[in-house]
């Protein structure tokens, strides 16, 4: 079963619902210019959903997970902002409180802070269904590009002293993830059917994806936009000095390299 819409269409249609701003404009341009990267990602998910072999599945789920678990990065960025807030050297402290609050709202769902299930547990359940066991968690299943993506996120969000850069990476991650989960839900449902899964097991196979759909990640993106806006007010920084399109394209390139590597691996294993 093919997904009926492209990643770029899902992103652009969502961005059009937000009030125009420099961040929105830069995202629109970056995703339009990133068509090659987005097609590579789409093809990877299409291939994986059509033939999730036992040999390939552990590599897919371990490496993919390294690109989509963002709670640690968001929390680390929040810690940095809270330290700045406590320093007292701000143009507008109340705006920094607002920025921190919106950033925390991004991680509420992932961490089950509102009473839901820890999303990492849902991913574990999904991967276990498709892999047959939980050996996929071994680091030996991480492709080189997935390790590089992790280093990229650590450098640009967790360890960076440039909080605005980290917030911009967070924003592109959230709007991209919105498109990703909407794109792959029908693909993974179809994959579960091909495996003969029914009832609770079929539900477990797509629960992690489904919980992020229906606007959840779009709401996270909205929180990221608000966090950026209030951070700028608090710090009195000129957003125009940042190459936002370059930051967003770098994110797409990093993600695409991971998924393209998995596509190459799957072709090799299928052809073996």
Q: Could you walk me through the main structural features you see in this protein, from its secondary elements to its overall organization?
A:
This protein has helices spanning 7-15, 22-33, 35-50, 57-68, 71-87, 93-111, 119-131, 144-158, 163-194, 199-211, 216-235, 244-271. By secondary structure, the chain is mainly α. It has a single domain, classed as Heme Oxygenase, Chain A (Up-down Bundle).
Quickly list its features.
Heme Oxygenase, Chain A, mainly alpha, 272 residues
Through-space gap between termini: 25 Å
Could you estimate the helical fraction of the residues in percent?
Answer: over 70%
CATH class: Mainly Alpha
Provide the residue-averaged pLDDT: 92
Overall geometry comes to globular
> Biggest β-sheet, characterized?
none
Provide a short characterization of the protein structure.
It is built from 12 helices and no strands. With 272 residues, it is an all-alpha fold.
Question: Topology of this protein?
Answer:
Layout: H1 7-15, H2 22-33, H3 35-50, H4 57-68, H5 71-87, H6 93-111, H7 119-131, H8 144-158, H9 163-194, H10 199-211, H11 216-235, H12 244-271
